Amino acid sequence: MLKSLLIKDYALIENIEIEFGSGLNIITGETGAGKSILIDAMGLLLGERASTEVVRKGAEKSVVEGVFLVQNNKKVKAVLDANEIEFFPEMIVRREVSLKGTNRCFLNDTPVTLNLIKEVGDLLVDLHGQHEHQSLLRTETHIDFLDEFAHLHDELEKFNSAYSVMNSLIKEVSELREKENQIKEKKDLYEFRIKEIDSVTPQLDEEEKLEDELKILENSEKILSLTNEVYNILYENEDSINGKVSKVKNKLHELERLDKTFSEKVNEAESVLAILDDISLFVRNYKDRIDLEPARVDELRERLGALNLLKKKYGGSLKAVLEHRGKIGKEFELAENFSEKISELEKKIVKSREESGTFAKKLSRERISASKKIKKEVEQSLSYLGISDSIFEVKVTNEKSAGANDHYVVIDNAKYKSNGKGIDDVEFFVSTNAGEDPKPLVKVASGGEVSRIMLALKSSLAKSDRLPILIFDEIDTGVSGRIAQKVGEVLKSLASIHQIITITHLPQIAGQSDFHFMVEKKKIGERVVSSIRMLESEERLHEIAKLISGEKVSEAALKGARELINYSKN
């Protein structure tokens, strides 16, 4: 649930903090007081895009922060774990929008992307905006309502996985066909380049080794002269260093016999002699291995020249040469076996269409089954909400394909048009008057009826809804009187299994609240500021009475408010 909401410097709001409760949270207030600003701020918290226009005049940035209780929400924990964000029973979500245009997002004080905020928000809240019920008037959304009711998320993922593979294969074939002439035209050029590179057979790490060897061979005479000179100085000459250090060691040894303090120096002299012997041996062995090989020098120079020529022609490095060889090798092989490659891919496409069709068929079958269940539940809810003679139908249709369009799947040897949601088109039909045949919802429902149909759908979906929080902005549009009472009762019923936050103008709905908040607009100096506070019992009574009678509260209005509140408790 949403435990608290902090909003700072957002539109008309200077600084408010709201502590919500579980159950039905009602927000009321005069038109223009800033109720919908609260919903907009919540939308920002859940990942909606923001404009610098939301920053309150005179402020540098807007801040919206929500604390959500998520201790039992495994899906939220999985998302946080996957993004290496520490999980706590209380999750803090924060958005900051500055006048400079920067938009910062945080989860548990860890900077994150807007997409991650939205991903988490989608696991927590169904925010039903003031005009969102109009989504029912867009036929393309109907399939989403049905799929949510039928819990088809996993089946949709399986279909999408197979469908993506199918489309990737179709795209690959299409691209190959487009490149066919181009590939065949370049076949001779690729063949020449392959032979040129393969005749040299470059190795990735050979250049440095060749250059090191060449450097030694090119300087072999000088190296031989220097090593001879070093060996003679160290060991071979009459006055060699080895001989002189040996004499020093002997003198130190004589001194040691007279004074033991020279013992350490005798040992050090012996160490120096050992080091000199080691150097001398290394130099002698090295110079003995030196060969003056003019032929090998020419061979290395020729090899390096061939490698440099390849580098100049094909990318500037041996790595680039080898990568180019791999690329044109594949292109040449494709040109050699173009028909076979196309045939192989087309066989895969046939199989992939059938696999996609298997998942699409199951999706369609599940939708048809769910359409009967949702029909019954929505009709019962509509009857309760005052549309007693309603007929609600969900039509699930699909269309066979002539095969001209690439995006079809195969089911039982028949081709069906398809898209990312399967083979089905889904549309809601409704009749709200006795004796009338159901007609497309988008053409026949009035505003008030659309609101009640949306609430009926939400009521059906919420029984097993994956989202713990439902937020409604004026779901009561177009209803009043007895029907408003019914709408309030449905919201109250939903609040037994979800936290509900809703804005309303109707006393029949406000009377059902578990927690009642009032938004007020005040003028402070030259500035208008919105604020919100939770009403205690007497304040709540007067607020509901004002919704009944207007600003001037009568005894009759108070009595009516009392009855509404008491009714909701029974």
Describe it.
The protein has helices at 35-45, 74-82, 114-122, 142-150, 153-185, 187-200, 206-218, 220-236, 241-258, 263-289, 294-313, 318-336, 338-384, 441-444, 447-462, 481-494, 507-510, 537-549, 555-569, and strands spanning 2-10, 13-19, 24-29, 61-69, 90-98, 103-107, 110-112, 125-128, 391-398, 408-411, 414-417, 424-431, 439-440, 469-473, 499-503, 515-524, 527-534. A six-stranded antiparallel beta sheet has the order 2-1-4-5-6-7. It has a six-stranded mixed beta sheet with strand order 8-14-15-3-16-17. It is α+β, with helices and mostly antiparallel strands. Helix 5 packs antiparallel against helix 13 (338-384) and helix 18 (537-549) packs across helix 19. The longest helix has 47 residues, at 338-384. It contains 19 helices and 17 strands. It is 55% helix and 19% strand. The mean pLDDT is 86. Among the domains are: 1-124 and 467-534, P-loop containing nucleotide triphosphate hydrolases (Rossmann fold, 3-Layer(aba) Sandwich); 196-333, no CATH class.
Q: What is the CATH level 1 assignment of the domain at 1-124 and 467-534?
A: Alpha Beta
| CATH topology descriptor of the domain at 1-124 and 467-534 | Rossmann fold
Radius of gyration: 41 Å
E-strand count: 17
- Assembly category: single chain
* CATH-assigned homologous superfamily of the domain at 1-124 and 467-534: P-loop containing nucleotide triphosphate hydrolases
Shape: elongated
Tally the helices.
19
Strand order of the largest sheet: 2-1-4-5-6-7
- First-to-last CA distance: 25 Å
Task: Report the mean per-residue pLDDT as an integer.
Answer: 86
Give the low-confidence spans. none
Percent strand: 15-25%
* Biggest sheet layout: 6 strands, antiparallel
Structural class of the helix and strand makeup?
A: alpha+beta
CATH architecture of the domain at 1-124 and 467-534: 3-Layer(aba) Sandwich
